[in-house]
Design brief:
- The chain is of the alpha/beta class.
- The protein contains ten helices and 14 strands.
- It has helices at residues 2-25, 69-72, 77-88, 117-123, 152-166, 186-198, 225-230, 250-258, 285-294, 319-334; strands at 61-65, 92-96, 107-113, 130-135, 145-149, 172-177, 180-181, 184-185, 213-217, 240-242, 262-265, 279-283, 302-305, 308-311.
- The chain has a six-stranded parallel sheet with strand order 2-1-3-4-5-13, with helices on one face. It has a six-stranded mixed sheet with strand order 9-6-10-11-12-14, with helices on both faces.
- Helix 5 (152-166) packs antiparallel against helix 10.
- The chain is elongated, with a radius of gyration of 45 Å.
- The N and C termini lie far apart (159 Å).
């Protein structure tokens, strides 16, 4: 009986466990849902791209104005170099007379030598064009004006200085036009150059005078002007003579060479009489203009001195003397030396 009850209880317990297990397995499970994303699909319609042809603009110009050009570019070397520069930089090169009626909006750059006061006044308001101006005048700087300023007093001073460097026994003469540089006569500036090198410049041999000596030139149109002026100082037994290029001719140059007199002048290498001179001190316009054209990144507007070149076709100025001369020239340009006053 006890065994039967025990079996009954055990069977009942097992039945209950089976029922509970069955109930728990039938609990519905929540099925996880995947996240959804709203996707908007844009339909792009293909359109045909149409490239419209653009009108090709005309290149701008680089103009060389012909006023006074023959005096400063007789061989055409400056014009040729500017033409090359224009071609490289996609500019049209032209030479023409200046006119206020020109279309300056088509002119990128322009070069002009010694413009008149009227021309200078006219170009002040032509800001669309960069002007390269070669002049002795004092011009107010502007953003579109590149002024290459000549200092002729420096040429005359250096002629006096170099002349005394190469002249034997200091016997140097100078033929100078009757002009002033800042209220100082040209012959005084020339004398100051010689004085800066040798002081009183008194020769050893008679006639004893203080060199350099000078004579005044009058009309440059008269071919005999220089020779006539030379007779005033020729009795000083000169060994060297400075003659401005405007007054030098082949007959006079030949006579000087035959008498063993060194010739100093201010003519450039392209001048037909260049081979006659022993030493030349001149404005190097080509180098000055090229320096401006090469300066693509820096600002070149303003006033710049024209370069001065010193050359010796006959080799009378030796390399050692040339180095000393270049140092003096640089001090002159930098303002450490004044061509107008030289102390005793």
């Amino acid at each position: 009986m006890k065994i039967f009850k025990s079996l009954f209880h055990t069977s009942t317990l097992l039945l209950l466990l089976v029922l509970v297990s069955a109930c728990s397995n039938n609990v519905p499970l929540q099925t996880p849902t995947e996240p959804t994303m709203d996707v908007n699909i844009a339909i792009v319609e293909e359109t045909e791209s149409v490239i419209k042809p653009t009108q090709t603009s005309t290149p701008l110009k680089f103009v060389v104005f012909t006023q006074n050009l023959e005096n400063y570019d007789p061989a055409g070397q400056i014009s040729a170099e500017i033409e090359t520069y224009a071609i490289i930089n996609n500019l049209i090169f032209e030479k023409m007379e200046f006119s206020p009626d020109l279309d300056f909006s088509q002119i990128s750059r322009a070069l002009i030598f010694h413009p008149s006061d009227d021309v200078l006044q006219n170009i002040q308001n032509k800001a669309e064009t960069t002007f390269i101006i070669i002049t002795e005048k004092d011009i107010q700087p502007s953003d579109h004006l590149i002024v290459l300023k000549e200092e002729p007093a420096n040429i005359v001073f250096m002629a006096g200085y170099i002349g005394e460097v190469v002249a034997e026994d200091w016997r140097l003469g100078g033929l100078l036009p009757q002009i002033n540089f800042q209220n100082t006569p040209a012959n005084t500036v020339f004398y100051n150059g010689g004085k800066y090198f040798c002081g009183l410049c008194a020769p050893i041999y008679a006639p004893v005078v203080f060199f350099p000596v000078t004579a005044n030139l009058s009309n440059s149109g008269d071919p005999n002007t220089a020779e006539n002026a030379f007779t005033e100082i020729s009795n000083n037994y000169l060994n060297a003579l400075f003659v401005p290029s405007a007054y030098l001719n082949d007959i006079f140059a030949t006579n000087l060479k035959q008498n063993g007199i060194l010739i100093l002048s201010d003519l450039s290498e392209s001048h037909p009489l260049y081979d006659f001179v022993d030493i030349s001190i001149f404005f190097d316009y080509r180098a000055s203009i090229q320096s401006v054209l090469d300066n693509h990144t820096g600002s070149t507007a303003g006033v710049h001195p024209v370069n001065i070149q010193i050359s010796s076709p006959t080799g009378k100025l030796t390399s050692g003397k040339a180095e000393v001369v270049q140092d003096v020239l640089q001090d002159l340009i930098d303002g450490y030396i004044s061509p107008y006053t030289v102390s005793e």
